[in-house]
Amino acid sequence: MTVFLSLPPNEIKTTAKNKGYPILANEFLKPTIENLPEKSSMIGDKNWNPSDKFWTIKVSAKNLRYITKDKESPFTLISGKMGKGEATYMVPDKKPIGIKFTTTNQSKTNTADQERGSAFIFGEALNNNKKFKSWDDIVADKDTFPKLVKLFKGDVPFDWLISYYAQQKVLLDEVQPVRVSKFNRDGGFMDFITKLISKKFKITKKDNWDPADIWIIHGDEKSYIQKITQSMEGPHQTIGELNDILRGMFRRKEVMGVSLKKTGKVAFYEEVNLSGMIPDTKNYNYAVPMTDLIAMFNIEYPDASFTQDVKIKVDAVDDNKTFTFQIKANSSDAKGGSNLKFEPTMKGASSARLGKAPVDDVCEILKSIKSTAVFKNRYQDYPETANEFKTHPKGEDYFKTKVLPTLLVGKSKITTDVSNVDTVIENIKTSYFGAKDRGTNTRCKLMGLDFFYQISKLSDKQRNEFVTDMVYLAQKKSFSKRPDFGPFGKIF
User: Fold this and answer.
1) Kind of pairing, strands 97-102 and 55-59?
2) Average per-residue pLDDT in the chain?
3) Which pLDDT score, from 0 to 100, does residue 51 have?
4) Given its phi and psi angles, is residue 261 left (phi above 0), alpha (psi -120 to 50 degrees) or beta?
5) Residues pairing with 326 in the sheet
């Protein structure tokens, strides 16, 4: 039977007792639960049957350390098998019972389920008047938590529970939608608006226009769809006119598109493209010296690899914000190559990614600012192996004579931990043989360095403008070169 992790701590003990295991319940589980460092970070499998090999109980890493190492924990007295992120014990009772404490999530989560979880918790908090004062309250709620676990196909990760509490708190405190609102993610308005922009404006990726993950709808959804449909009839309507309609609906809290990011214990809220103002990044931009471009080359053992990413730090002094772009493989698990993604975080909200910059736009704007600064986000254009690196057009000679001297020695020096060109070349060769390479790791590093090399061709003013454009692109904020992003709220 599938593991269904829905039993909060108090019900774990009760379940053991009800199934006829008083020693397990009273002498082991009861004192453990009472002394857990993190009280709610223990969730048991509701589908446990005593005939099973063991009973799965998920705990946080801190709680696992307590169970396995703390002298006060009764489980430290039981012979058990300790593994990475897991401890299994045999507990004596009317017959020995196997207990497996684990920090590992028992089901794989995907973005769709995570967003559905947000919409569900929003509905519970707003429309069902659930008073969640902490994420513990979500776990303790006998109506809410089992439904959330079912949505996640058996197991809700602790970090998402923390995020859901923070998200719903900022929704109620700052977004303040009208009660009896609908939270639409699948079908309905989402399906309508996605098809409309594809058919009418040839925008095939909805999130490259408006990254709203859910639509908060108060009132008659069909009437809003009809109004937009009628307004967009004919050959001359523009995406700007659609944005104006959606801005009006947002301000009246009729239809509110909201982008959701995984948060930490505290969530933030920002409204994007609601004012209709379009800044010109030629005149308003952030100062980004070449030293704010960062690439590290030290080889880490035993993997014999360096990190695949490069970074750009952006100090937005006037906005009192600091952004850090991490430029790395679009798929971390890819084998045989992966194109890059450009994704920033913001200081103070480091657990939340702010969104990916559309790569085609990044490359197009770079070239439009300076015609000789050309970067193509194609991993196939870079050597996959150390042997290919020797003779490839984007291989050893290219990086040794052009890219690295510019970035490590010339006036366009970046921040790095190794500034000797020959040493970096040798480290590149070594990294190809590293355990983490998989035909992707070193290749992505070369792509990131080549991207930096193209940036180095820009003047200081052009570089400031371009990197500021990247910040706006990632956040889907309208600016002079891309004035057509849609209005949305962002919880991050």
Assistant:
1) parallel
2) 93
3) 87
4) beta
5) 311, 343
DSSP characters over 212-272: -SEEEE-S-HHHHHHHHHHHT-SS---HHHHHHHHHHHHHTTSEEEEEE----SS--EEEE
Tell me, letter by letter, the H, E, C secondary structure of 19-84.
CCCHHHHHHHHHHHHHCCCCCCCEEEECCCCCCCCCEEEEECHHHHHHHHHCCCCHHHHCCEEEEC
Question: Beta strands 310-316 and 255-260: pairing type?
Answer: unpaired
CA angle 319-322-328, nearest 5°?
135
344 in Cβ contact with 325 (< 8 Å): yes
In this prediction, what percent of the chain has a pLDDT beyond 90?
A: 83
Per-residue pLDDT band at 114 (split at 50, 70, 90): very high
Q: Is the pLDDT of residue 145 over 80?
A: yes
110 vs 242: CA distance, rounded Å = 31
pLDDT band at 348 (very low <50, low <70, confident <90, very high): low
CB 296 within 8 A of CB 417: yes
Whether residue 302 has a cis bond before it, omega within 30° of 0: yes
For 19, the 3-state DSSP assignment is coil
Pairing outcome for strands 86-91 and 80-83:
antiparallel
Report the helix count and the strand count for the chain, using DSSP H and E: 18, 15
Its pTM stands at 0.87
Please tell me which residue, 395 or 40, carries the higher pLDDT value: 395
